Amino acid sequence: MKTLLLCICLSPCLWAGNTTALYNPTAPTTGPFPTNALTTTDRTQKTGLRVSLPSAFNTCDVNTSPSVCSNVALLNQLDGFSVNPRFMVCFSAPIDTTTLQAGIQILPVNGGGSVSINQIIIDPNSNCVFGKPNQLLNQQSQYLLLVTDSVHDSKGQKVKEDDAFATCLKSSDAYCESLEAALDQVTQQPASKNKVILASLFTTMSATTWLQNARAFVAANQAPVVLPAGMPSSFNIADVKSIVWRPEGSADDTGNEEIIRSEEHTSELQSHHDL
pTM of the prediction? Predict the structure, then answer.
């Protein structure tokens, strides 16, 4: 006599659906982002890396926002990504937005609690999700941006991994190998109990290095007692009309020169903090 087992799903079955978490880390419009796949080795930097964004990253109108569009070359001088990065994860179809908070997290590779996300924005045309970490990340540190199968599609089914992500973890590509090693290091943490369907390894920049160097320089070098003729030693802020910025080390100082007027200063420079 044979016994038949009949399984009835009384609630929506949380099997994987057809929606995938897209994976193409070298394409900033697909992601996930940020990612060390968009960096290059640079032993002169503190982190040993340097950001290497493609020229296609400049997608804005140079006539309306020249300071932002002309600065990819400057961003590519950084040794990592912002300690308050705007992350991006894209999906192949609409997802259940109520599951994003539980399904996306940021984990420090070298141990520590997971960082939750906030300021979530969804682009319905591309099905891309943007957000911020709930706290500032440590500088010069490695983090994993993780997406788990806690994220569901609009039909309530689990989002599945992209074949390209699975292929990456089995490949001998340098970035993919470092990503796999980082995942092996953190998957035993309680915050990673759900299946990881997408991940990105990224390194944060040296956020205070310039300030530390500037402070050391000021301490070691006294300002000249006598300044060149006609050069004032102090300025009245109300009298300052503009500031000319020539980034040191740029290939063409004149080409990268920006005039930051007082009313534009805050809005223009804020965009640089999101890398």
Answer: 0.73
The span from the CA of 61 to the CA of 66, in Å, is 7
Task: For 256, list phi and psi in degrees, rounded to 5.
Answer: -100, 0
Pair type for strands 258-261 and 242-245: antiparallel
**DSSP letter (8 states) at residue 206:** -
Ordered alpha helix ranges (H), 118-195: 163-170, 174-186
| Contact between residue 23 and residue 198 where contact means Cβ atoms under 8 Å apart | yes
Helix locations, the chain, DSSP H: 66-69, 72-75, 100-103, 163-170, 174-186, 209-220, 253-256, 262-270
Distance, C-alpha 109 to centroid of its chain: 15
Q: With H, G, I as helix, E, B as strand and everything else as coil, classify residue 231.
A: coil
Helix (H, G, I), strand (E, B) or coil at 10: coil
Residues ≥6 apart with Cβ < 8 Å to 148: 103, 104, 105, 192, 194, 195, 196, 197
Residues of the chain with pLDDT under 50: 1-13, 190-192, 252, 255-273
